Amino acid sequence: MSWEKIGIMGGTFNPIHIGHLLLAQWAMEEAGLDGIIFMPTGNSYLKDKTEMLSGSERLAMTRLAVQDRDCFFCSDMEVKRGGNTYTYETLESLRHIYPQAELYFIVGADCLFSIENWYCPEKIFKQCTLLAASRGSTPLQELEEKRQELAEHYGADILLMAFPDMEISSTDIRRRCREGKSIQYLVPDSVREYIIAGHFYENL
Ligand code: ATP
Ligand code: MG
Questions:
Q1: Distance 135 CA to ligand 1 centre (A)
Q2: What's the distance, CA 103 to chain centroid?
Q3: Most CB within 10 Å of its CB: which of 61, 80, 121, 144?
Q4: What are 115-147's pLDDT values in tens digits?
Q5: Sequence-ordered list of residues with C-beta below 8 angstroms from that of 142, at least 6 positions apart, any chain
Q6: CA distances (Å), 145 to each of 87, 98, 141, 152, in order?
């Protein structure tokens, strides 16, 4: 692959939904990326585990979601690595595989505000440009303040992008499954079929 600008879309993807796919699409256009690597997490030690599907199940859903798009790929790197998932390790591995590429790590606003609690944030900032999107009602002004703070404190390179407000989250999708409501249009059909066939999220 001769990519010069690579986007990395990390997430638990429990399940992957159209918010993730649109965010990746927006990021490609905004930063002129050559392609996006979707990277489902292994063990997200910062996340609540009660409704968490296994890594292989989240990986399977992510693969289904990106399979019909040429410039979207899915990586099993974090799921396979085992142990806690640390983003800086993933970025170091990608840097090794693509020594010449510019790496863009894509996050929604909630992650921009919590990234300092991730393991070794300074190593994350060193390896990539962060592409941060607004999420929900976060005003761009607040994002801009956070951007400046992280730039001053860590020398972080952060690009902000406006993203349409959509009240869509995996948490909400899991709740809908529990309540027997439809998740059509919220996730790709292939992912919805996988969830229905596996009876996932129904009784969690
Ligand atoms: P959960 O509710 O389980 O936390 P989620 O919908 O937040 O799931 P994650 O896998 O936690 O999905 O998020 C992966 C990335 O996608 C994060 O950077 C998150 O900020 C971003 N993201 C997810 N949904 C949206 C959305 N609707 N708008 C903007 N960014 C989003
Ligand atoms: Mg989340």
A1: 8
A2: 14
A3: 61
A4: 999 999 999 999 999 999 998 888 889 999 999
A5: none
A6: 23, 32, 6, 11
